[in-house]
Write a structure and sequence with these properties.
It holds the Pfam family 4HBT_3C. It comes from Staphylococcus succinus. The chain has five helices and 13 strands. The chain is mostly beta strands and 274 residues long. It has one domain: Beta Barrel (Porin), CATH 2.40.160. A hairpin with a 2-residue loop joins strand 11 and strand 12. Helix 2 (39-51) runs antiparallel to helix 3.
């Protein structure tokens, strides 16, 4: 068995140690954000508490994480509780504690998938190949950005641009992305990647303002067997906002394989401060 030192930074960041009826974890400097850890790595760690639980069945089909308060740097506890197990689905409550206070809450649904008629109505975006796009510089950005190779095709944050405009007409971003260093994609990495977009308000506006995700929901459209076939391939992320209004905006996103397979969709609600 590999030691934890030999593992990928994502595996180190999401590592949990079982203790009685809960798990112990610790934040990672590799995935630090402007305040506390990158929300995607927190969501992946919460999911890992269910994946490691001896009572879990099947694969995750949905995950909702509610960020009730910022996670402080340091240790934390996670408790995952199976609420109900049906013939094909299983429902979970997940809670993250620091100093005996709830900081993050979540729910997850796992399922045993079976082969049925299937169809994808969303269309794979028309984009250049990953080799034709250029990676962004992580200089001056939070350390979580350095854990990814991100090539933005459309929607470079206006806040990072040297142009003089104060606002652009669209918050849409298209980007190729993979873990850095490369890592085979699984539900943990896919969860984190669903949140690996710069805030939509940074794309629309020149100004950088304080923001924080309030709630993130991810729907997984593949099972573990399918995920294993993708290896460490780059994936395409497509994110946009519908409305910015009185201190809150939404973000919807799609994650695609380079061959056009829809891997996951997500929706989140974000607080911002002028």
């Amino acid at each position: 068995m590999k030691s934890i030192k030999e593992n990928h930074p994502l595996d180190i960041a999401t590592q949990l140690i079982r203790k009685e009826d809960h798990y112990l974890g610790h934040t990672s400097d590799h995935y630090a954000n402007m305040v506390g850890p990158f929300g995607g790595i927190t969501a992946a760690t919460m999911l890992n508490a269910v994946l490691q639980h001896t009572e879990h069945i099947g694969d995750p089909v949905s995950l909702t994480i509610n960020y009730a308060a910022p996670v402080s740097d340091g240790s934390f506890e996670i408790k995952a509780t199976p609420a109900r197990t049906n013939r094909a689905t299983q429902h979970w409550f997940i809670e993250l504690f620091q100093d005996d206070e709830i900081v993050i809450t979540g729910t997850a649904v796992f399922a045993k998938r079976r082969e049925t008629w299937s169809s994808t109505e969303l269309k794979f975006p028309a984009v250049p190949n990953p080799e034709e796009a250029y990676p962004i510089s992580s200089k001056g950005l939070p350390s979580w950005v350095r854990q990814y190779d991100i090539k933005i095709i459309q929607g470079l944050p206006s806040a990072f641009s040297h142009h003089v405009q104060t606002e652009v007409p669209s918050s849409t971003t298209l980007q190729w992305i993979h873990d850095e260093p490369k890592r085979n994609i699984d539900f943990l990495s896919l969860t984190a990647i669903c949140d690996a977009f710069f805030p939509r308000i940074y794309v629309r506006r020149k100004q950088i303002v304080p923001i924080g995700t309030i709630s993130l929901t991810i729907y997984f459209h593949v099972d573990s067997k399918q995920l294993q076939t993708y290896g460490d391939e780059v994936v395409l992320g497509h994110a946009t906002a519908n409305q910015f209004h009185n201190g809150f905006f939404d973000q919807t996103a799609e994650i695609w394989s380079p061959k056009g397979d829809l891997l996951a969709t997500s929706s989140q609600f974000v607080y911002y401060k002028e």
